[in-house]
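Z., the sequence and structure:
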Amino acid sequence: MIYTFGGSGAKWHWATWSDWLHMYAGPVTNWAAPGYCSQNIYWALTEKRKQITKDDHVMIIWSPTTETVNWYDEDWIMEEDCWGFFPKENGKLWFTKDDPWLGMYKLHPKHKTSLTQLIVESLTAILHSQWLLDRIGCKYTMMMSLVPWVDSRPTHGRKYVTNWDKKIRFDPKEFLAAKQIIKLDPIRDIIEQIDWTRFEGVPSDPFDIENWYGICEYEFRNERHWEYFPLKHVTDNHPNSLTYHDFTLEHLLKVDPLQGKYREAARAIAKQSVNIPIPALTPDEFVATPDLPIKFNIEQWLDTNGYNSVK
């Protein structure tokens, strides 16, 4: 079995790389959920680890350095008087069992973290996940949605505003700052411990950070960007289905994406998705488990639209 983990880069309102992987090399069980940061992904992996065997293949797409999580209890929430920050009034957070408000949730914006902290937490989540997967003994592959050096933290003000999806160009200052960060001995040590051969999009020298890329960078650096950009959603900056299709074949399956059986289907999905409404996350989705149902049923779409979904 192939198990996929990630945030919205693996489970969204149109077919992602996880869906195309299912069609070309499945079956795939998708344990991603929109809104997951890298720490969420690590905890989702720990939650599901007992279902993974040494014969399985785990594939993880790491989220941008947007936010982190914190473990909460009712005493702290009462002391800080920040009930309105949480998604529901019934006290359900990630991993909550019998005691309301005891569990994990996003870090409160009052305690906004530095980009340095988010980079360190992302790298640490990767290292800890590799240790866990090495202990299981299974095959695993990792990739990025967006390279971690980019400051994609949201803006917290009168209105919550995401910024990762506005990064069309990267500020050279961010890379200069990242180069200073990775000179710090503890961070350099983490980078040296990570097995980067398990990654797609990281050069042989992981300290060559300007040549890292995630699926977002693949989309706008690719020689086929002229195909991808007219098919982007009018407001949502997630890669479109054709981009996900080509990335899957080229980088995960190592075949020519132009020869893909479902490439024209991917283009059609992208065209249909350009103007679809993107609903806000529901309260339940804010604390979704890895078992959150898929948002886009690829096999159903292929069959309904005249494409044979039989592999």
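Residues 260 and 272 are 19 Å apart (CA to CA). The beta strands are 2-5, 28-30, 57-62, 69-72, 103-106, 139-144.

Let me know what you think.
H.
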